[in-house]
Design brief:
The protein is α+β, with helices and mostly antiparallel strands. The protein is built from five helices and five strands, in the order ααβββαββαα. 22% of the residues are buried.
Length: 157
């Protein structure tokens, strides 16, 4: 039998679970590095996903707690897309992926883990990055620590 070691997961397993909206709380705190916040603008920000589908999985969200696009102003909508583009450009420079998945999930049935605070997922993809692990083992293998990736992406800004 082979073993997969993910020692950084024990911190999450043993820690007290957060309550409330992390997409509202994190940008209000003063420690962007600890919160993995890479980019800030006037109405929106971008942070690394703490539970990524792939290395570099970025979330772009408005500061406003809103669950639907209709609740955002024109400025917020524009900035949301501009910051998504900027995040994609950063990931392309730093990680050199073969492509990207970019999307928003509205509602639990659509896969939204956070239903009441919309956010855009920017997920770098590489040829062959999906193997038997997520298909058969329901496991995702993330080959780089978040803090290391955060530091690399900050260098690229």
């Amino acid at each position: 039998m082979e073993h997969l070691w993910a020692p950084w997961r024990i911190q999450y397993i043993l820690s007290a679970k957060e309550t409330g909206c992390f997409l509202c709380r994190k940008p209000q705190e003063a420690d962007d590095a600890r919160n993995l916040i890479l980019l800030r603008d006037r109405t929106c920000y971008a942070l690394l996903n703490a539970y990524p589908y792939n290395p570099g999985h970025l979330l772009v969200a408005p500061y406003k707690h809103s669950g639907d696009l209709e609740e955002l102003s024109e400025q917020e909508l524009t900035e949301l897309m501009m910051l998504t583009r900027r995040g994609k450009q950063l990931l392309a420079r730093a990680l050199k992926p073969d492509g990207f998945n970019v999307g928003i999930n509205f509602g639990k049935v659509a896969g939204a883990g956070v239903e009441d605070h919309l956010h855009i997922h920017v997920v770098p993809r590489w040829n062959g990055d999906t193997n038997f692990m997520p298909v058969l083992g329901e496991v995702r293998v993330i080959p780089q620590a978040l803090e290391e990736l955060y530091a690399e992406l900050r260098k690229q800004l």
